[in-house]
Amino acid sequence: xxxxxxxxxxxxxxxxxxxxxxxxxxxxxxxxxxxxxxxxxxxxxxxxxxxxxxxxxxxxxxxxxxxxxxxxxxxxxxxxxxxxxxxxxxxxxxxxxxxxxxxxxxxxxxxxxxxxxxxxxxxxxxxxxxxxxxxxxxxxxxxxxxxxxxxxxxxxxxxxxx
Length: 162
Hints:
27% of the residues lie in helices and 36% in strands. By secondary structure, the protein is α+β, with helices and mostly antiparallel strands.
């Protein structure tokens, strides 16, 4: 990249010259650089990640617009974090079913990032959150087959128990 100073002919020049060089204005100076190359097409993974990012951004903006939810997220914020950062992180990373234990009496479900869990269902019936153990519990009535966890964004995470 070349910077052009005190040249009355090139001062203020901008645009492409000969499909090789581009003149630009940066901080009041004329800059000469190579012609930019087009970006390659995005992969499906990149497109999916961009969509996930956009959804998380929209969720975080909506969350901090509500004073009650903003206060909840602000409580969880650590040094240097805002309520927006915490809400965005919740939405972007989502929840994850980390462990499911099935016994004769109950099904216990441990969640990763469980503060954004809205509801946990075992075979379509709601489980109850046990604050002392920090697990979701469901009393066994019959053999459990499936666990579903819903987060605040409306995403569903499932695990089959068969």
